[in-house]
Every structure is written in C-alpha cells, then in structure tokens.
Amino acid sequence: xxxxxxxxxxxxxxxxxxxxxxxxxxxxxxxxxxxxxxxxxxxxxxxxxxxxxxxxxxxxxxxxxxxxxxxxxxxxxxxxxxxxxxxxxxxxxxxxxxxxxxxxxxxxxxxxxxxxxxxxxxxxxxxxxxxxxxxxxxxxxxxxxxxxxxxxxxxxxxxxxxxxxxxxxxxxxxxxxxxxxxxxxxxxxxxxxxxxxxxxxxxxxxxxxxxxxxxxxxxxxxxxxxxxxxxxxxxxxxxxxxxxxxxxxxxxxxxxxxxxxxxxxxxxxxxxxxxxxxxxxxx
Length: 283
Ligand code: SF4
What we know:
Blueprint: E1 4-7, E2 16-19, H1 22-36, E3 48-49, E4 54-55, E5 64-67, E6 70-73, H2 76-89, H3 104-117, H4 122-129, H5 134-140, H6 146-161, H7 173-185, E7 187-188, E8 191-193, E9 213-215, H8 220-240, H9 243-265
Antiparallel strand pairs: 1-2, 3-4, 5-6, 7-8, 8-9
Helix pairs in contact: 3-4, 4-5, 8-9
Bound molecules: iron/sulfur cluster (SF4).
C-alpha cells in the first residue's frame, strides 16, 4: 500500500496529492483515529478565516477538538501555544538563550529549506508546497544564505570526488538483482540479519548469540521452543558432567532470553496497525 495525502486547496494553494512517508502516514493515522473517536468518519467542521472574514464549507479538518457540544478546529493561536509548550518541554532555546518559539508556518519554511538545501530541485519543492510561482518557493528558501548552501554543496562534491568514480554510475541489472537479493538473504529463522550490504556473516550463523540479529516479534513462539530445548540440553549437560558444553549452552540461553525481552518490547508490525474502522481504502 502506498499512502497518499490529498491536500485540499487553500485560497492561494493548489490541490495536491502527495506520497507520504510511512512515519508521517502513521502520525496522520493516529490523529485521524483520535479525532474520529470511534465514529466512522471525521466530523465535518467549518473554519473561520479571520483575514478573509469568511467561513469555510464543512470539511473533515484534521486538527479539531471537542469544544462544548460540537467540534471546533484548533486555531493558529492554539497550535502556537501547543508548539511553545512542546518546545519548552524539550528545552529548546534560541540563539540568545531565550525560549525557542515556532509558528505553524515555520514548519513549511523549514521543510522547503531543508528539501532544497539537500538537493531537491526548486520546481519539485514548489509542486509539493502547492506554489504556483517558483519565486514564492525561492523566497521560502531564502532563509539560508546562498553562501551556506553553496558551501554545503561544494563540501558534498569534494567528498564525492574522494570516492572512486566507479561508484557514481548506474548499477547494472545484475548488480541491482544482487543488491535486492542481499535483503532476501538477510531473513533468518528468528528475524532479520542486520549485517551491512556486501559483508559476510562473521559469526558462523550462530544467530541466537549474534548482536546483528534483529528479532522479529512474530517468531516469539519459535524462540520459546528454542529456550525450552536449550534448558533441557543444559540440564542434561550438567547431569552428565559435560562441563565443556555447559558454558556454551549457558551463553546461548542468556542470549536467547535477551532476544526474547527485545521481541516482547518491540510490537509486531501486525499488532502496531491502527484500526481505522473505515469501510473504504481512502481516509
Ligand atoms: S550470525 Fe549474525 S551476522 Fe551471521 S547471519 Fe546470523 S545475525 Fe547475521
């Protein structure tokens, strides 16, 4: 599933349909789930535009909250207050040591500035922001001196210049297949092997003891069986005086218990899904 975010046009923007990252999709899903509060759809509310002195048509605004008998949107003043509290709780300070303050609009500027400064072409950033004119986007990203951006780009170019030019070409089909295959081959009995691409297993495939193993919470039953088996083997080794075995089995058992704790801490991807209760694929 590819999460898409449909942005309703404001007075100056255009309607936009954007691909969003899984992290942002999760945050938006949480907000929707909280605002719906068990109902099938988001409540429709109107927004008063103080500058235009107009009420919007009823829309499923994301940032709304119950107030009295009905839901109301969070006003920019309220959002700013929440941002101030969050910045204060995080201990953020500005250059003069005073409390750091943000307006909601700052995040649009920060996004645009970061995106363009890290190489996104301005016309793509303009599309994402819904700007009709490139000049508007360029004004957004004027927060940083052009000098700073140029120095950063020169630094990246210098770093690239130090790498063999062979690395800066299109991969062949065979190389690409080999790269994808690496991720397939990282699946092991209890989860995913986290070793870097192109590196061999240094630990003789003793995954239960290996720090590179990222345990999959869905394999908790299998790990419980392994622990049971290790305990039985350890008891037998102690009974029969196989002291050489005891030490190794104790190490494996300790590592297995650690992996079990990790699995129990990380929610499985299936259980971390948020039930929207929506009857259609679109929210
Ligand atoms: S022992 Fe470690 S490095 Fe080797 S396959 Fe298992 S998890 Fe990966």
